Known about the structure:
The protein is mainly alpha-helical and about 120 residues long. The chain is built from 4 helices and no strands. α1 packs across α3 and α3 packs across α4 (about 110-120). The model has no long low-confidence stretch (mean pLDDT about 80).
Amino acid sequence: MAIVFTSIEALGLIFIIILGIPYLGGVNYLEMSSSGFSGIFQASALIFFAFIGFEEMVKLSEEVKDPEKNIPRGLILAISASIVLYILVALSAVSVLGWERLSQSSAPFADIAFAALGKMLHP
């Protein structure tokens, strides 16, 4: 069941990435808000919690063939895939809405989808 829910979540993130492709390069990605570096540290704390679940993989080491080789490989691949996915989502989100609108949004992914698809649905 966890695989199904993880797949649904990943497909949603991939959908956001696809929606953002036409908008890539339209904003200055290095522009900082008035929070400056404190905003970067706040975001880092959120990212830390996004990766907490990876320690659960170690608990499966008894069930894996050749755990000394496969558990580290699985961890590195999973973390690498997550990092790439999160970076692409962040680039897409900022490209579609800009950091100002994203920071004010209570439902950022819905706003991204509406901004990107709204133009297609209502030309």
